[in-house]
Design goal:
CATH architecture of the largest domain: 6 Propeller
Number of strands: 31
Radius of gyration: 23 Å
Helix content: 10-25%
Number of helices: 3
Largest sheet: 7 strands, mixed
Distance between the termini: 35 Å
CATH superfamily of the largest domain: TolB, C-terminal domain
Number of domains: 2
CATH topology of the largest domain: Neuraminidase
Protein backbone atom coordinates (compact mmCIF):
# COMPACT_ATOMS: atom_id res chain seq x y z
CA UNK A 1 0.00 0.00 0.00
CA UNK A 2 2.31 2.67 -1.25
CA UNK A 3 1.28 6.30 -1.16
CA UNK A 4 1.09 8.11 -4.50
CA UNK A 5 3.04 11.03 -3.10
CA UNK A 6 5.87 8.64 -2.17
CA UNK A 7 5.83 7.19 -5.69
CA UNK A 8 6.07 10.62 -7.27
CA UNK A 9 8.94 11.46 -4.95
CA UNK A 10 10.79 8.29 -5.98
CA UNK A 11 10.21 9.08 -9.64
CA UNK A 12 11.78 12.45 -9.11
CA UNK A 13 14.66 10.92 -7.18
CA UNK A 14 14.80 8.02 -9.69
CA UNK A 15 1.62 -23.48 19.48
CA UNK A 16 0.40 -24.54 22.63
CA UNK A 17 -1.11 -28.04 22.60
CA UNK A 18 -4.64 -28.68 23.89
CA UNK A 19 -4.34 -32.03 25.63
CA UNK A 20 -7.99 -32.52 26.51
CA UNK A 21 -11.20 -30.69 25.86
CA UNK A 22 -14.91 -30.63 26.40
CA UNK A 23 -16.75 -28.19 24.15
CA UNK A 24 -20.26 -26.76 24.29
CA UNK A 25 -21.25 -23.86 22.06
CA UNK A 26 -23.60 -21.31 23.59
CA UNK A 27 -25.10 -18.20 22.10
CA UNK A 28 -24.32 -15.05 24.06
CA UNK A 29 -26.18 -11.76 24.16
CA UNK A 30 -24.35 -8.47 24.19
CA UNK A 31 -25.23 -5.92 26.81
CA UNK A 32 -24.27 -2.40 27.78
CA UNK A 33 -22.49 -0.67 24.88
CA UNK A 34 -22.89 -3.73 22.67
CA UNK A 35 -20.15 -5.61 24.50
CA UNK A 36 -20.46 -9.01 26.16
CA UNK A 37 -19.78 -8.80 29.91
CA UNK A 38 -17.46 -11.57 31.06
CA UNK A 39 -15.85 -12.34 34.40
CA UNK A 40 -12.17 -13.30 34.21
CA UNK A 41 -11.03 -14.73 37.52
CA UNK A 42 -7.40 -14.68 38.57
CA UNK A 43 -5.77 -17.91 37.44
CA UNK A 44 -4.78 -19.95 40.46
CA UNK A 45 -1.20 -21.14 40.83
CA UNK A 46 -0.68 -24.62 42.22
CA UNK A 47 2.30 -23.31 44.21
CA UNK A 48 4.26 -20.10 44.70
CA UNK A 49 6.33 -20.96 41.63
CA UNK A 50 3.32 -20.52 39.38
CA UNK A 51 2.01 -17.32 41.00
CA UNK A 52 3.82 -14.87 38.72
CA UNK A 53 3.11 -16.57 35.36
CA UNK A 54 -0.52 -17.19 36.45
CA UNK A 55 -0.95 -13.48 37.12
CA UNK A 56 0.69 -12.59 33.81
CA UNK A 57 -1.58 -14.93 31.84
CA UNK A 58 -4.67 -13.52 33.54
CA UNK A 59 -3.64 -9.97 32.69
CA UNK A 60 -2.98 -10.76 29.03
CA UNK A 61 -6.33 -12.55 28.64
CA UNK A 62 -8.17 -9.59 30.15
CA UNK A 63 -6.38 -7.16 27.86
CA UNK A 64 -7.02 -9.33 24.79
CA UNK A 65 -10.74 -9.49 25.50
CA UNK A 66 -10.87 -5.72 26.05
CA UNK A 67 -8.91 -5.08 22.85
CA UNK A 68 -11.27 -7.30 20.86
CA UNK A 69 -14.02 -4.72 21.25
CA UNK A 70 -16.48 -7.55 21.83
CA UNK A 71 -16.19 -7.95 25.59
CA UNK A 72 -16.31 -5.98 28.78
CA UNK A 73 -14.20 -7.78 31.36
CA UNK A 74 -15.48 -7.72 34.91
CA UNK A 75 -13.19 -8.16 37.88
CA UNK A 76 -14.73 -10.48 40.50
CA UNK A 77 -15.27 -8.78 43.85
CA UNK A 78 -15.01 -10.23 47.32
CA UNK A 79 -17.91 -12.58 47.93
CA UNK A 80 -18.47 -12.94 44.20
CA UNK A 81 -20.85 -15.74 43.35
CA UNK A 82 -23.76 -14.87 45.61
CA UNK A 83 -27.12 -14.49 43.93
CA UNK A 84 -27.48 -11.08 42.38
CA UNK A 85 -23.74 -10.47 42.09
CA UNK A 86 -22.53 -9.75 38.57
CA UNK A 87 -25.98 -10.59 37.20
CA UNK A 88 -25.11 -8.88 33.91
CA UNK A 89 -22.23 -11.29 33.19
CA UNK A 90 -22.61 -13.83 30.41
CA UNK A 91 -19.68 -16.11 31.16
CA UNK A 92 -16.94 -16.80 33.69
CA UNK A 93 -13.37 -17.82 32.90
CA UNK A 94 -11.12 -19.47 35.46
CA UNK A 95 -8.03 -21.64 35.43
CA UNK A 96 -5.32 -23.38 37.43
CA UNK A 97 -1.64 -23.34 36.52
CA UNK A 98 0.71 -26.12 37.57
CA UNK A 99 4.20 -27.31 36.68
CA UNK A 100 5.18 -30.52 34.95
CA UNK A 101 8.93 -30.90 34.75
CA UNK A 102 10.25 -27.93 32.80
CA UNK A 103 6.83 -27.04 31.39
CA UNK A 104 3.64 -25.45 32.62
CA UNK A 105 0.14 -26.90 32.41
CA UNK A 106 -2.95 -24.69 32.39
CA UNK A 107 -6.34 -26.22 33.09
CA UNK A 108 -8.78 -23.67 31.66
CA UNK A 109 -12.52 -23.54 32.17
CA UNK A 110 -15.16 -21.31 30.60
CA UNK A 111 -18.61 -21.43 32.18
CA UNK A 112 -21.97 -19.96 31.35
CA UNK A 113 -22.60 -17.56 34.21
CA UNK A 114 -26.29 -18.27 34.78
CA UNK A 115 -26.46 -22.03 34.27
CA UNK A 116 -22.85 -22.83 35.32
CA UNK A 117 -22.79 -25.12 32.28
CA UNK A 118 -19.31 -25.78 30.88
CA UNK A 119 -18.68 -24.00 27.58
CA UNK A 120 -15.19 -25.41 27.20
CA UNK A 121 -12.69 -27.18 29.41
CA UNK A 122 -9.13 -27.58 28.12
CA UNK A 123 -5.63 -28.38 29.24
CA UNK A 124 -2.69 -26.53 27.69
CA UNK A 125 0.96 -27.50 28.04
CA UNK A 126 3.60 -24.88 27.21
CA UNK A 127 7.13 -23.77 27.99
CA UNK A 128 8.18 -20.86 30.17
CA UNK A 129 8.89 -18.74 27.09
CA UNK A 130 5.38 -19.34 25.70
CA UNK A 131 3.36 -17.60 28.40
CA UNK A 132 2.10 -14.68 26.32
CA UNK A 133 1.34 -16.85 23.29
CA UNK A 134 -0.59 -19.26 25.51
CA UNK A 135 -2.63 -16.37 26.92
CA UNK A 136 -3.37 -15.09 23.39
CA UNK A 137 -4.43 -18.58 22.32
CA UNK A 138 -6.83 -18.90 25.27
CA UNK A 139 -8.28 -15.45 24.51
CA UNK A 140 -8.98 -16.49 20.93
CA UNK A 141 -10.65 -19.66 22.21
CA UNK A 142 -12.95 -17.62 24.44
CA UNK A 143 -13.91 -15.36 21.54
CA UNK A 144 -14.57 -18.32 19.28
CA UNK A 145 -16.78 -20.17 21.73
CA UNK A 146 -18.80 -17.13 22.79
CA UNK A 147 -19.08 -15.25 19.51
CA UNK A 148 -18.34 -17.81 16.82
CA UNK A 149 -15.56 -15.68 15.28
CA UNK A 150 -11.83 -16.22 15.25
CA UNK A 151 -9.87 -13.78 17.38
CA UNK A 152 -6.71 -11.99 16.30
CA UNK A 153 -4.69 -12.16 19.52
CA UNK A 154 -2.01 -14.40 17.98
CA UNK A 155 -1.48 -12.16 14.94
CA UNK A 156 1.48 -9.86 14.28
CA UNK A 157 1.99 -6.54 12.55
CA UNK A 158 4.81 -5.49 10.25
CA UNK A 159 5.73 -1.81 10.13
CA UNK A 160 8.50 0.56 9.12
CA UNK A 161 10.44 2.84 11.44
CA UNK A 162 12.68 5.73 10.40
CA UNK A 163 16.09 5.47 12.07
CA UNK A 164 18.37 8.21 10.80
CA UNK A 165 19.11 7.55 7.15
CA UNK A 166 17.64 4.03 7.38
CA UNK A 167 13.99 3.01 7.25
CA UNK A 168 13.87 -0.51 8.63
CA UNK A 169 11.10 -3.05 8.99
CA UNK A 170 9.99 -4.29 12.39
CA UNK A 171 7.51 -6.88 13.56
CA UNK A 172 5.41 -6.71 16.72
CA UNK A 173 2.62 -8.72 18.32
CA UNK A 174 -0.83 -7.29 17.74
CA UNK A 175 -0.87 -5.79 21.25
CA UNK A 176 2.48 -4.01 20.94
CA UNK A 177 4.68 -6.60 22.69
CA UNK A 178 7.54 -8.67 21.31
CA UNK A 179 8.92 -6.03 18.96
CA UNK A 180 11.90 -7.10 16.83
CA UNK A 181 13.77 -5.64 13.89
CA UNK A 182 13.64 -7.46 10.55
CA UNK A 183 15.91 -5.39 8.31
CA UNK A 184 19.08 -3.41 9.02
CA UNK A 185 20.40 -0.28 7.31
CA UNK A 186 17.87 -0.40 4.48
CA UNK A 187 15.21 1.88 3.09
CA UNK A 188 12.29 -0.52 3.12
CA UNK A 189 8.75 0.03 1.91
CA UNK A 190 5.42 -1.65 1.41
CA UNK A 191 5.53 -4.80 3.62
CA UNK A 192 2.86 -7.30 2.59
CA UNK A 193 2.09 -10.56 4.39
CA UNK A 194 1.52 -13.65 2.25
CA UNK A 195 0.79 -16.04 5.10
CA UNK A 196 1.71 -16.46 8.75
CA UNK A 197 5.41 -16.90 7.97
CA UNK A 198 6.09 -15.20 4.64
CA UNK A 199 5.98 -11.59 3.56
CA UNK A 200 7.27 -9.35 0.78
CA UNK A 201 8.72 -5.88 0.93
CA UNK A 202 10.55 -3.48 -1.34
CA UNK A 203 14.02 -2.06 -0.73
CA UNK A 204 16.55 0.10 -2.59
CA UNK A 205 19.53 -1.72 -1.10
CA UNK A 206 20.82 -2.42 -4.64
CA UNK A 207 20.06 1.13 -5.83
CA UNK A 208 16.82 -0.10 -7.36
CA UNK A 209 13.40 -0.65 -5.80
CA UNK A 210 13.50 -4.46 -5.80
CA UNK A 211 11.01 -6.75 -4.10
CA UNK A 212 12.17 -9.36 -1.59
CA UNK A 213 10.38 -12.38 -0.14
CA UNK A 214 11.15 -13.29 3.49
CA UNK A 215 10.32 -16.65 5.07
CA UNK A 216 10.45 -16.30 8.85
CA UNK A 217 10.09 -20.03 9.49
CA UNK A 218 13.03 -20.91 7.26
CA UNK A 219 15.05 -17.81 8.05
CA UNK A 220 15.51 -17.02 4.35
CA UNK A 221 15.26 -13.93 2.16
CA UNK A 222 15.63 -13.76 -1.59
CA UNK A 223 14.96 -11.39 -4.49
CA UNK A 224 11.49 -11.91 -5.89
CA UNK A 225 11.50 -9.26 -8.64
CA UNK A 226 14.33 -7.00 -9.76
CA UNK A 227 13.28 -5.27 -12.95
CA UNK A 228 14.79 -1.85 -13.42
CA UNK A 229 12.54 0.73 -11.82
CA UNK A 230 9.78 0.19 -9.30
CA UNK A 231 9.01 -3.32 -7.98
CA UNK A 232 6.44 -2.67 -5.26
CA UNK A 233 4.40 -5.41 -3.55
CA UNK A 234 0.78 -4.38 -3.16
CA UNK A 235 -1.58 -7.15 -2.06
CA UNK A 236 -1.67 -10.94 -1.83
CA UNK A 237 -4.77 -12.97 -2.62
CA UNK A 238 -4.73 -16.31 -0.82
CA UNK A 239 -7.87 -17.43 -2.66
CA UNK A 240 -6.01 -17.22 -5.98
CA UNK A 241 -2.44 -17.54 -4.67
CA UNK A 242 -1.60 -14.42 -6.65
CA UNK A 243 0.12 -11.17 -5.79
CA UNK A 244 -0.81 -7.78 -7.26
CA UNK A 245 2.21 -5.51 -7.69
CA UNK A 246 3.13 -2.12 -9.08
CA UNK A 247 5.92 -2.33 -11.67
CA UNK A 248 7.49 0.35 -13.84
CA UNK A 249 9.35 -2.09 -16.05
CA UNK A 250 8.12 -0.28 -19.17
CA UNK A 251 8.64 3.19 -17.76
CA UNK A 252 5.13 3.83 -16.45
CA UNK A 253 3.59 2.65 -13.19
CA UNK A 254 1.23 -0.22 -14.01
CA UNK A 255 -0.37 -3.03 -12.02
CA UNK A 256 0.61 -6.63 -12.70
CA UNK A 257 -0.28 -10.01 -11.21
CA UNK A 258 2.57 -12.34 -10.26
CA UNK A 259 2.95 -15.68 -8.54
CA UNK A 260 5.09 -16.10 -5.43
CA UNK A 261 8.02 -17.26 -7.57
CA UNK A 262 8.14 -13.80 -9.15
CA UNK A 263 6.71 -14.82 -12.53
CA UNK A 264 4.43 -12.28 -14.20
CA UNK A 265 1.08 -13.90 -14.89
CA UNK A 266 -0.69 -10.94 -16.50
CA UNK A 267 -0.69 -7.18 -16.81
CA UNK A 268 -3.85 -5.50 -15.52
CA UNK A 269 -3.55 -1.80 -16.41
CA UNK A 270 -2.47 -0.06 -19.60
CA UNK A 271 -2.82 3.65 -19.06
CA UNK A 272 -0.64 6.73 -19.39
CA UNK A 273 -1.67 7.66 -15.85
CA UNK A 274 -0.02 6.31 -12.71
CA UNK A 275 -1.77 3.13 -11.46
CA UNK A 276 -0.61 1.93 -8.03
CA UNK A 277 -1.63 0.50 -4.63
CA UNK A 278 -3.63 -2.61 -5.66
CA UNK A 279 -5.74 -4.33 -3.00
CA UNK A 280 -7.51 -7.63 -3.67
CA UNK A 281 -11.07 -8.31 -2.61
CA UNK A 282 -11.31 -11.40 -0.33
CA UNK A 283 -12.72 -13.55 -3.13
CA UNK A 284 -10.06 -12.48 -5.60
CA UNK A 285 -12.69 -11.34 -8.10
CA UNK A 286 -11.83 -7.63 -7.93
CA UNK A 287 -8.98 -5.26 -7.14
CA UNK A 288 -9.18 -1.73 -5.73
CA UNK A 289 -6.36 0.58 -6.82
CA UNK A 290 -5.29 4.23 -7.10
CA UNK A 291 -5.08 6.07 -10.41
CA UNK A 292 -4.81 9.69 -11.46
CA UNK A 293 -6.28 8.93 -14.90
CA UNK A 294 -9.12 11.35 -14.14
CA UNK A 295 -6.72 14.17 -13.25
CA UNK A 296 -6.46 13.55 -9.48
CA UNK A 297 -5.67 10.43 -7.47
CA UNK A 298 -8.88 8.46 -6.90
CA UNK A 299 -9.87 4.93 -5.91
CA UNK A 300 -10.92 2.65 -8.77
CA UNK A 301 -12.05 -0.98 -8.92
CA UNK A 302 -11.39 -3.53 -11.66
CA UNK A 303 -11.84 -7.26 -12.01
CA UNK A 304 -8.99 -9.70 -11.47
CA UNK A 305 -8.05 -9.54 -15.15
CA UNK A 306 -8.03 -5.76 -15.53
CA UNK A 307 -11.50 -5.36 -16.99
CA UNK A 308 -14.70 -3.61 -15.87
CA UNK A 309 -12.84 -0.60 -14.48
CA UNK A 310 -15.01 1.81 -12.50
CA UNK A 311 -14.28 4.82 -10.36
CA UNK A 312 -15.28 4.27 -6.75
CA UNK A 313 -14.59 7.57 -4.94
CA UNK A 314 -16.49 10.65 -6.03
CA UNK A 315 -15.58 13.09 -3.27
CA UNK A 316 -12.14 14.34 -2.32
CA UNK A 317 -9.41 15.61 -4.63
CA UNK A 318 -6.68 13.27 -3.39
CA UNK A 319 -7.59 9.72 -2.33
CA UNK A 320 -5.08 6.93 -1.78
CA UNK A 321 -4.10 3.65 -0.08
CA UNK A 322 -7.22 1.48 -0.54
CA UNK A 323 -7.45 -1.61 1.67
CA UNK A 324 -10.25 -4.12 1.11
CA UNK A 325 -11.78 -5.58 4.27
CA UNK A 326 -11.41 -9.37 4.69
CA UNK A 327 -15.18 -9.44 5.11
CA UNK A 328 -15.55 -7.84 1.69
CA UNK A 329 -18.06 -5.23 2.82
CA UNK A 330 -15.83 -2.16 3.12
CA UNK A 331 -12.77 -0.53 1.60
CA UNK A 332 -10.67 1.71 3.83
CA UNK A 333 -8.69 4.56 2.29
CA UNK A 334 -7.09 7.91 3.12
CA UNK A 335 -8.50 11.16 1.74
CA UNK A 336 -6.71 14.50 1.93
CA UNK A 337 -8.63 17.39 3.43
CA UNK A 338 -6.52 20.51 3.73
CA UNK A 339 -3.27 19.55 5.42
CA UNK A 340 -4.65 16.33 6.94
CA UNK A 341 -5.56 12.89 5.66
CA UNK A 342 -8.89 11.51 6.87
CA UNK A 343 -9.48 7.80 7.30
CA UNK A 344 -12.59 6.80 5.39
CA UNK A 345 -14.62 3.65 4.80
CA UNK A 346 -16.61 3.10 1.63
CA UNK A 347 -18.77 0.19 0.46
CA UNK A 348 -17.62 -1.53 -2.77
CA UNK A 349 -20.63 -0.11 -4.62
CA UNK A 350 -19.80 3.41 -3.42
CA UNK A 351 -23.23 3.98 -1.90
CA UNK A 352 -22.16 4.12 1.76
CA UNK A 353 -19.24 6.17 3.02
CA UNK A 354 -18.04 7.15 6.48
CA UNK A 355 -15.23 9.25 7.95
CA UNK A 356 -13.89 7.52 11.05
CA UNK A 357 -12.32 10.51 12.81
CA UNK A 358 -12.60 14.27 12.50
CA UNK A 359 -9.74 15.25 14.80
CA UNK A 360 -6.40 17.01 14.35
CA UNK A 361 -4.44 13.88 13.40
CA UNK A 362 -3.55 12.77 9.90
CA UNK A 363 -4.27 9.10 9.09
CA UNK A 364 -2.71 7.20 6.19
CA UNK A 365 -1.99 3.70 4.86
CA UNK A 366 -4.78 1.68 6.52
CA UNK A 367 -4.63 -2.11 6.70
CA UNK A 368 -7.17 -4.56 8.09
CA UNK A 369 -6.93 -7.15 10.83
CA UNK A 370 -8.18 -10.56 9.66
CA UNK A 371 -11.33 -10.10 11.79
CA UNK A 372 -12.55 -7.26 9.53
CA UNK A 373 -13.22 -5.18 12.62
CA UNK A 374 -9.86 -3.57 13.40
CA UNK A 375 -7.67 -1.35 11.27
CA UNK A 376 -4.02 -0.44 11.76
CA UNK A 377 -3.06 2.90 10.26
CA UNK A 378 -0.31 5.50 10.37
CA UNK A 379 -1.27 8.50 12.52
CA UNK A 380 0.89 11.60 12.49
CA UNK A 381 1.06 13.43 15.81
CA UNK A 382 3.58 15.94 17.09
CA UNK A 383 5.77 15.52 14.03
CA UNK A 384 6.06 11.74 14.55
CA UNK A 385 4.36 8.78 12.92
CA UNK A 386 2.67 6.13 15.04
CA UNK A 387 0.92 2.88 14.17
CA UNK A 388 -2.52 3.05 15.76
CA UNK A 389 -5.13 0.30 16.02
CA UNK A 390 -8.76 1.31 15.51
CA UNK A 391 -11.98 -0.54 16.27
CA UNK A 392 -14.32 0.59 13.49
CA UNK A 393 -17.42 -0.34 15.52
CA UNK A 394 -16.64 1.32 18.85
CA UNK A 395 -14.22 3.94 17.39
CA UNK A 396 -11.81 3.04 20.18
CA UNK A 397 -8.21 3.78 19.26
CA UNK A 398 -4.90 2.81 20.82
CA UNK A 399 -1.36 3.72 19.91
CA UNK A 400 0.72 0.62 19.19
CA UNK A 401 4.28 1.64 18.28
CA UNK A 402 6.17 4.47 16.67
CA UNK A 403 6.29 3.68 12.97
CA UNK A 404 4.40 3.67 9.68
CA UNK A 405 3.31 1.49 6.72
CA UNK A 406 1.77 -1.29 8.81
CA UNK A 407 0.51 -4.62 7.50
CA UNK A 408 -1.44 -7.13 9.62
CA UNK A 409 -0.67 -10.84 9.43
CA UNK A 410 -3.41 -13.29 8.44
CA UNK A 411 -4.82 -16.03 10.62
CA UNK A 412 -3.48 -19.55 10.40
CA UNK A 413 -5.44 -21.53 7.78
CA UNK A 414 -5.06 -24.76 9.73
CA UNK A 415 -7.87 -25.45 12.18
CA UNK A 416 -10.47 -23.22 13.69
CA UNK A 417 -10.22 -22.76 17.46
CA UNK A 418 -12.06 -25.46 19.31
CA UNK A 419 -11.17 -28.17 16.81
CA UNK A 420 -8.27 -29.40 18.88
CA UNK A 421 -4.55 -28.92 18.30
Amino acid sequence: MIRLVATLAMLCAAAPAALAQTDIYLKTERGGRGKIPIVVREIEGASSREASPASSITGVIRNDLDYSGLFETILPQAGFGAEGDMRAASAVFEGKLSSDGGAYVLDALLLDFSSKETIFSKRYRFGADGTRHLAHTVSDEIIYFLVGERGVATTRILFRRVEGAAKNLYMVDYDGFGERRITKDEIAMSPVWLDRNRFCYSSDRRDNWDCYLVDLAKGTKYLLTQWRGINMAGSYCAARDEMAMTLSVNGNHEIYVLNTAGKVLRRLTRNRAIDISPSWSPSGSEIAFVSDRGGTPQIYVMDGYGGSVRRLTRSGSYNQSPAWSPKGDLIAYASREGNLYRLKLISPDGLVEETLFDDNLSYEDPCWAPDGRHIAATAREGGKNYVVVIDIDTKEKRRLVQGEFADWSPLSPERAPGAGR
